[in-house]
Sequence to fold (503 residues):
Amino acid sequence: MATFVDRVVLHATGGDGGHGCASIHREKFKPLAGPDGGNGGNGGSVVLEVDPQVTTLLEFHHLPHRHAPSGTQGMGDHRSGSLGADLVLGVPDGTVVKSPTGEVLADLVGPGARYVVAAGGRGGLGNAALASPRRKAPGFALLGEPGDSADVVLELKTIADVALVGYPSAGKSSLVAAMSAARPKIADYPFTTLVPNLGVVQAGSSRYTVADVPGLIPGASEGKGLGLEFLRHVERCAVLVHVLDCATLEPDRDPLTDLAVIEAELAAYSGDLGIEGGRIPLGERPRVVVLNKVDVPEARDLAELVRPDLEARGLQVFEVSTASHEGLRALSFALAGIVEQARRDAPAPAPTRVVLRPRAVDEAGFTVTRREGGGSVWFEVRGEKPERWVRQTDFSNDEAVGYLADRLARLGVEELLFKRGAVAGDEVRIGSDQNAVVFDWEPTLQAGAELLGQRGTDLRLEDRSRPTRGEKRAEFKERMDAKAAARAELWTERESGVWTDPE
Fold:
């Protein structure tokens, strides 16, 4: 029998985008017929999809690391790279996707429900796509972007209409076997049931599912026994059925005490109220009490003794025997009525809407922040476009670096650096601290394709012996000192009367 796994950690990585191609078309009598480099293919994404044939997360337990295929590089003659196929992973119905911090990212309910865990990287543009009237034959292409990487927690919350809860060996598995065609393992020792069992019950024209949750004990909501691991399987249920053992031989147990203990554990358990079917707290859901094993004479006497107290609390009480099937028909029809009422009261599913959120007119799309630390000062540039452009740039190609400078200047990064107080030689970092591109800012750097040299070069970057930041600061200070000295000399001449009116 396959092992039941209902909680795993999945490490997903999207495929990398293929690099663009820098190629020039050549044929007889046309040695330079223009750029013809194709675009790189997009990388595949890691997608979770509900598959009715999958009932456990065991596959992800053995193979937790999944990587989608990458796109291939573009080629000459306008040939684009192939796309990386999406890696579609089948998950059971009712799987909840969470972040490592516990935030619910997706609730996958219903066949075909999908969620993209890690998106694939975008393919780089070839030089044919980068050509323009001013840059007619680019000698570079954009690099493909790496795919996203994410760690998510997958939790299976069983989709059932009725949940059977109670102490170990209270007869929950026997009740499921007696009411449905399910055949769980049944034995006369505690914790026989180690995994939830599902059964389908037909009561007249109504059909509903019953889940047998492994036995709860005091402290289950705090991690004792098996309860904490399987209490999540009752979160979607419309009705809770307390199965109380009236034939227990333990001296400190009785149906009323068992009911109080299980109710306390359900109240102490905090589930995910944002999931489908989990909007109502467990303490507010309909309850039914089943006094089991009444085929034993002493158990029948005890059931008749505690029944008035339970009914006084407003609970529906049924005396049943899974051995003789006594009371099972009335119980099945009563549960069918509660389930049907819950289905009628459930809110209609809201239609899926496409929400458009256009960017504000005055929104730059990036930020420039002055940072200090470790005795140094730098300016941090963050934003989707600048960071993506940096990832796409081949820094071994001077023309590609110049193209990046032109794009940043058109976006307004240089202007905002001026407003934040940046001067020549200041350190600028684009991206996060862990993976930032660092360079010394050149505010006087001219932009424009008219400064291009041969393909793959940029006249603005030809001077390899660029002064250091300290040398630039010293030069700037010398200029300021020279200006101050000139102003002082002119003021002295004016005070001494050198500047006089001829009249």
In short: The chain has a mean pLDDT of 80. The domain at 162-345 is CATH 3.40.50.300 (Rossmann fold).
